[in-house]
Design brief:
The chain is of the alpha+beta class. The chain is about 65% helix and about 10% strand.
């Protein structure tokens, strides 16, 4: 490459980098878990129509105010009332439900009256209020904790609130929380979860990339003992990252919980291209070649293998675009693009840079290459002498892994990403222990065609059975439905007696009671849960974060109960809500993981088969990479880790990266065979020259991915841990099993 061309290439790359840097500086962070819902899905379409009729099921904030010794303390209740009044004044709030302001309806001979639930100004009535609350089914573990050490305020914020408005609202709520000196306070909701995730995403993006750079610098110094060998590979991959982020911004893509990992993954994956080229370049300089010849040999011998590994790694990521979930699709697309850009920059920027700068000083007396050669020679000799032992070992490990793999479950919890020490997770647990949980429950009941109304007595009785089942068996609390309203009216008609919080036992009593629904305050309440034509209603509630596996089991049991015990000629039901969609996504992703892996296997088999013009060689290349994935699946099964939205992508990513070592090995083996050398001589030459490079790149990859284990997000931690482990197992398998497979099929290759 001439000096003029080299200068032009570098100037063009620097100009593009400057533009990309400007664009990437404008990237913002986005966390909206609704983006994870699959597109063109029937359940999603139903939910979108559902919230048009009723409301969004996660536009709320729960705030629990704690009083040690019990809430029936005048100072505490007065302060809680003032706190509620201040909440109502905040922007972006539509409704605040607080025990301090709640009134019970009473129908008597004088008409309709409302009695305060808590007589805050009259402490002489606290004893009666306490007794009344303890006996009431509608308030226990909903607005009051079971031990009456706290009360809960429910805030409904503006529907589908914007990021800017939610941050403003959360900031104002937290300002109020700090203003009032309660013994303790717990709060949870979408806007807090969103803020928590975004803050951590921003912090971890910088931390992970910094950790990765530091680890890579250390490993590069150990390997090359040269400043040149550190700066050039890092500079190359940083340019690729900047280009990729610039492209993301150009197409309007923000950083989310998935793409936050992109810079770190690109850094550790993309740097392997530069390392293989620089490593070969240094090797040729040590062998006495001049700079020009060393550059040509490095790109001639390593260039094709680097192209193939870039294609296979990109193929692993590109299969994620086949998953019909936008953040994962975009993560796969932009990471695959980044891998290709890293190759393009390595293959253009590196030779141009190497041509222009002064030849680096190579320590000729460095004993490191000789130590590598001796160690790899001993390992190769062991492999030649004990192929059967190696095959038996991997067969045994594979069988054990299959046993562990059979124990893998598909399961996901809403806040499983956060550690138990995280304040949001602790507040989440508080609401599970003291109240009805915070996982939304949503279901609709429709009147079958030909029947009249939700309020027909026969239909109400059937819905009453559903309500009882949800409370006693399904595990739903804080239920609000037409049955809740009917029971409350019946109780109100009997002076607030808790014994009458039931559906009237006769049609006559029911018909008398149902007339009360015409009261304006009740009609307004019913708008949230009944469609205008009275043909459909909503059952909404809260429950513990039981996980997608348990939720699916409960839904199957409920369906069985409904079909056996409910008159299906009168009503039918439909489960819906964000929690249901998240659960469905989890199962959807796990199933798509198998499809994605199959496609990745096929793509890589085609690439290797095309390279060697041999189907058998393509199959051989897959074995050392299929085994590590099986082993990791087995480890996950034995450790009780589930397949979910996070861990399902580990296999696809790890396979796309791990196969690079196999391709480098086989590519070098093919190159050596072209020189008409004997099979074993070509294999030994391949082992000694490629062994060091694939070990080095694997250590760097593992070091980069291991930085992710410091994440507060469980999913990020597991991605870092399991991909690093997979890569270590994969390189070990390439070094021990791959040569044995080549020897086994040497006559047929």
């Amino acid at each position: 490459m001439s000096k003029k061309i080299s200068i032009i290439i570098i100037i063009v790359i620097l100009l593009i980098t400057s533009l990309s840097g400007f664009l990437s500086s404008k990237l913002s962070f986005d966390y909206d878990f609704e983006h994870f819902f699959p597109k063109n899905d029937a359940d999603l379409e139903y939910f979108l129509k559902f919230r048009e009729v009723y409301e969004n099921d996660n536009d709320y904030i729960l705030i629990a105010l704690v009083k040690n010794g019990g809430i029936f303390n005048k100072n505490f209740l007065e302060k809680a009332k003032r706190f509620t009044d201040d909440l109502k004044k905040l922007d972006h709030i539509e409704k605040v439900t607080s025990p301090t302001h709640l009134k019970q309806p009473i129908f008597n001979s004088f008409g309709f009256i409302e009695v305060p639930l808590l007589h805050i100004d009259d402490s002489s009535q606290y004893k009666n209020d306490k007794l009344k609350i303890k006996k009431s089914k509608e308030y226990n573990k909903t607005l009051f904790s079971e031990d009456l050490q706290s009360l809960c305020i429910v805030i409904h914020n503006t529907p589908i609130i914007t990021k800017k408005a939610s941050d403003e609202l959360l900031g104002n709520i937290e300002t109020l929380i700090h203003k009032y000196n309660f013994d303790d306070i717990h709060y949870a909701g979408k806007i807090r979860g969103q803020k928590t995730y975004l803050t951590k995403m921003k912090n971890e993006l910088v931390i992970f990339l910094s950790f990765s750079v530091l680890i890579v610098i250390i490993l590069l110094w150990i390997s090359f003992r040269s400043i040149f060998g550190i700066i050039v590979p890092i500079l190359t991959v940083l340019i690729a990252i900047i280009w990729t982020l610039g492209v993301m911004q150009f197409f309007g893509k923000n950083l989310d919980i998935m793409t936050t990992l992109l810079p770190t993954i690109l850094f550790v994956v993309g740097i392997s291209d530069a390392i293989h080229i620089i490593s070969k370049y240094f090797e040729e300089l040590r062998n006495g070649k001049n700079k020009k010849d060393a550059i040509q040999i490095a790109f001639k011998e390593v260039g094709l293998a680097t192209l193939l590994t870039s294609l296979t790694t990109a193929a692993g990521f590109i299969t994620l675009t086949m998953i019909n979930i936008q953040p994962i699709k975009e993560f796969g697309l932009y990471t695959a693009l980044g891998v290709i850009l890293a190759f393009v920059i390595a293959i253009s920027f590196l030779p141009a840079l190497l041509s222009l700068i002064k030849e680096p000083k190579i320590v000729q007396k460095n004993r490191t290459p000789e130590l590598w050669r001796k160690a790899l020679s001993k390992i190769f000799l062991f492999i030649i002498q004990h192929p059967k032992r190696i095959l038996l070992f991997y067969t045994s490990i594979f069988i054990a892994a299959l046993i562990g793999l059979s124990q893998l479950d598909i399961n996901y919890h809403l806040l499983e990403d956060l550690s138990e020490k995280n304040p949001l997770q602790q507040d989440f647990r508080f609401f599970e222990n003291q109240y009805s949980g915070i996982r939304p429950f949503e279901m609709t009941i429709q009147v079958k065609e030909g029947n009249h109304s939700i309020f027909d007595y026969e239909i109400v009785k059937e819905m009453g059975k559903v309500d009882d089942y949800l409370n006693t068996t399904y595990g739903t609390g804080f239920i609000f439905s037409p049955i809740t309203v009917i029971k409350s009216i019946n109780k109100a008609m009997h002076g607030g007696n808790n014994d009458y919080y039931i559906i009237p036992k006769t049609r006559e009593k029911y018909n008398k009671m149902i007339k009360k629904l015409k009261h304006p305050s009740l009609k307004k309440m019913l708008k949230r849960i009944i469609r205008k034509d009275n043909k459909e209603c909503r059952f909404t509630g809260k429950m513990d974060d039981i996980g997608s596996k348990k939720a699916n089991e409960l839904n199957i049991q409920f369906q069985s109960y409904f079909n056996k015990k409910i008159n299906t000629n009168l009503i039918q039901y439909k489960m819906t809500g964000t929690a249901l969609l998240v659960d469905k996504n989890n199962e959807f992703l796990a199933i798509n993981m198998i499809t994605g892996l199959s496609i990745a296997f096929l793509l890589i088999a085609v690439i290797v088969g095309f390279l060697f013009k041999s189907i058998k060689m393509a199959l051989i290349s897959l074995v050392p990479n299929f085994i590590p994935l099986t082993i990791i699946g087995g480890i996950m099964g034995f450790l009780g880790h589930s397949i979910n939205m996070s861990t399902s992508i580990i296999f696809t990513i790890a396979f796309g990266i791990a196969v690079d070592d196999t391709i480098h090995f086989l590519s070098k083996f093919k190159f050596e065979q072209k020189s008409k050398k004997s099979f074993f001589f070509a294999l030994r030459r391949t082992y000694l020259s490629t062994g060091k490079a694939i070990i080095l790149t694997t250590l760097i990859l593992c070091g980069g991915f291991l930085s992710l284990i410091f994440s507060d997000f469980k999913s990020t931690y597991l991605i870092g841990l399991y991909i690093s482990t997979t890569l270590l197992i994969a390189v070990t398998t390439d070094l021990f099993l791959l040569p044995v497979l080549l020897m086994l099929f040497k006559r047929r290759l």
